Sequence to fold (151 residues):
Amino acid sequence: MFSTVRYFIKTSLTFLFIGILTGLSMSFSRHVMGEGIPPDLVSAHAHLILAGSVMMMIMGVALWFFPRPASDDTRYNPDLIRLVFWIMAVSTALRFLAQGTVAFIELRELRWAIAGTSTFQVAAFGLFFYSMWGRIRAVGSATREAQGEKF
Fold:
């Protein structure tokens, strides 16, 4: 397993751990303290687990699991994948911090930060999918497909 894959997976697990602690805090706040949970905090929590943990895990495993790029694949670029990692990691962390803060302190600037970091996340997903597209191909299964085997 090469380093970029490990970065995706370890960051995914870090985001999951922080998301679980946030969920635990929200559970105590609601069920023990009897307080409401701000919608922005719920959104920050869900986003950290889904985009930060689940999607980064999927991206890391896909990077590791999919066939190597074909020799004529002009889309796949390891430097681009490293850039995608940094864009995803930083924008996810900043979005979580901004949205978690907005849950308790209303600041218009942080609303813009949330929108901006969301845009960077979407861009990172797009760059990842673009780069990985050529690696989604039949390797080793072409014979089975030619013989009519399905799934």
